[in-house]
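idk why but the lab printer keeps eating my pages so im just putting this in chat instead. protein + guanosine-5'-triphosphate:
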Amino acid sequence: IVIVSARGARDSFCCSPAQTPPPTSAIRLGQTRPFLTGSLPSLMRSSLAPLGLPVSRDRVIASFPKWYTPEACLQLKDHFHGQVSAACQRRNTGTVGLRLSKVVVVGDLYVGKTSLIHRFCKNVFDRDYKATIGVDFEIERFEIAGIPYSLQIWDTAGQEKFKCIASAYYRGAQVIITAFDLTDVQTLAHTRQWLADALRENAASSCFIFLVGTKKDLLSGAACEQAEAEAVHLANEMQAEYWSVSAKTGENVKAFFSRVAALSFEHSVLQDLERRSSTQLQVGDGDLIRMKGSSPESQEGRGLSSLGCC
Ligand SMILES: Nc1nc2c(ncn2[C@@H]2O[C@H](COP(=O)(O)OP(=O)(O)OP(=O)(O)O)[C@@H](O)[C@H]2O)c(=O)[nH]1
Ligand SMILES: [Mg+2]
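predcted complex ->
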């Protein structure tokens, strides 16, 4: 890990998958974003997460955030899974509060991936286009049902020439966000390929997939309805949840990321409960072999596949 000041604007943290610094030429390309950055304050905040310091009020999620449209959503229920609520109340969520869940944002150049992330993480909007080179990331801390939880949000380059750098960072994603521009139907068609590329590095069964239409402020009325209808159709084909957002006005941005965080949090807790209840076989005092650490709920014998559903 090398600490560099990439453009003098802010301190940045910079590394590659092999933990080597990027070529300096990548950093010097004036109107572009550097190869890989993550803000130092984010990094410091992330290291504080395990201490359980309070998060800002707008990152506290107490009730399960709702979908954008029931026609293309990953789950319809409006409450946390019973086992998750019980585990949170007992503070029995294992290592979930200590881990970072990886979110990868992909899509064509200029669709607004960086703008979406910056609106959520920094509450800013920049009208000028600065292409992302390679990848960039932000860390956002939440408190969900009383438990600390962090997302590591990876912003990737849409430009073809940077694709090979960006794709090196797809692996290990818990959430894949495929973004397109609501005003440019070609970018919607291309999301199929972006998703296929991301799924080459991740198992579809272990990821939540979102399809996000950006620049909602530029469309209204029938044009917006038409674009959304096409997107919902594709989202169902991709088994993705659909959202329309605007980084410019901020419309739906916080609601969208809250939904992302809540779904991945719930899944992480269920996975953790499952893992802990299915291991640690222990020989008891008498003739019995009993499961150590298994909760009464998990002793009912329900598998994870039935835990995560509506
Ligand atoms: N009107 C409007 N413009 C937007 C919105 N989001 C992004 N833009 C503009 O669209 C352009 C591209 O945005 P970026 O966020 O840099 O796009 P990107 O997908 O990150 O592009 P690459 O990094 O090259 O992959 C910029 O000029 C933004 O100001 C939006 O919600 N509304
Ligand atoms: Mg970008």
